[in-house]
Amino acid sequence: MHDHLTTLPTADGQQVPRGEAILPGVIRPSPTPQRLLWLDTSQGASGDMLLAALLGAGADAGSVAAVLELVAPGRLRLQRRQLRRGPFTACKVDVLADEPHPPVRHLGDVLELLEDSAIPGTTRETATLAFTLLAEAEAKVHGVTVEEVHFHEVGALDSIGDIVAVCEAVRTLGVIRATSSVTALGAGTVRTQHGVMSVPPPAVLELATGWLVDAGGPAEVGELCTPTGMALIRALCSGVTDLPPMRVDATGVGAGSRERTDRAGVLRAVLGTPLRDVHLMDEVQEIAANVDDLDPRLWPGVLETLLGAGALDAWLVPIVMKKGRPAHTLCVLAHPRDVDDLTRAMLEHTSTLGVRISPPQQRRLLRRDFRRIQVEGLDVQVKIAGDGHLIRHATIEFKDVERLAELTGWSQRIALATAQRQAQRAGLRPGEHWPEEVDHD
Q1: What is the total count of domains within the chain?
Q2: If you write DSSP's letter for every residue of 110-122 in order, what string do you get?
Q3: Residue 125 and residue 101 share a domain
Q4: How much is the pLDDT for 194?
Q5: Could you say which of 232, 250, 274 is where a domain stops?
Q6: Are the C-beta atoms of residues 58 and 254 closer than 8 Å to each other?
Q7: What is the CATH number of the domain that holds 411?
Q8: How does pLDDT run across 187-201, given as a tens digit for each residue?
Q9: Which helix (H) or strand (E) segment is 213 a member of?
């Protein structure tokens, strides 16, 4: 942009502060769905708030702009800017339409705009659902058929762009499941093309049927959630939840068009990876020493002592030292905080004159847990490991095998085989789905 203007005109003649133009890019293939999306709608929701929050959380702006170009070639533009709302720095996104006098559109007219085969199927399906929900709500409120519904504000090209842009933004984020907080609808009155209406207006209430909502403030708070915002929440979200368990990967804060004095008036999007999909990582160090003059009868006690002192693992590696002398390398794996204590234990309980300590290294772990089964009325623990989706390993705790053999009179071989069969009947075996957080009796 090379001129000196600081605002851009909208279709209704209002001036919108100029921001960064979002130019159409490449529509990227749908990523593998693996993220959770949580929408904080406790201060309300609208199409532009949702879009801004999603772009702030990392949605592909170029792909969004490219889809809008397919919907209305040369007639829809996106611009983005940062602003301050209450304590938040928020993103504001405007969908600007070259449509001075929007026609009255029906559902069929809107869906025709989505027929371009280059529009991603998931985006089209979600947008179609949102528009259909809007039409069904309006039809019920006005006592007409869905085909007869006249889209007024929502039928304008910029409002259509809001809905399609939000649906494409969610697609680019690879969302497997979206939920929202309780949604604030507002209270008081709002002026519409039908005249002054009570807040929440009838269409919003119809869309909110079965959803968890509240007024979000006193009687004069005004409109907090628009019909577009409520339709998108219902089309995108599977339910109302608190922030779900996740590793937070990104957040976005989206501002609406109205600047308020009673609240920030923002919508937050939180994008994350489900905890069961997060690869566990920690930091470890290895301590090692070569020993050639320790009575081999002492080694079992040494290993047990080191494990009792906090070693994550301890093991011996047979080696041949100078002059062909047989020896062992004692290796200990430890968290950095335990290295000093374990080093002292190695120097005290072996004949080594020194140890080698590796730099900290990252260790990647499978998720691990224990499940309880019953064998002959006795508790036996099964250690399972996997990625949170499938079990990769299932091992009977051998101390429980020893106790089972002692109490039943079985051999340890029979006790182990019996416990393994019971674990398999309980679904605790490699290849099975990760069990729920309950014991298996």
Answers
A1: 3
A2: HHHTT--TTS-HH
A3: yes
A4: 66
A5: 274
A6: no
A7: 3.10.20
A8: 988 776 667 878 898
A9: strand 213-214
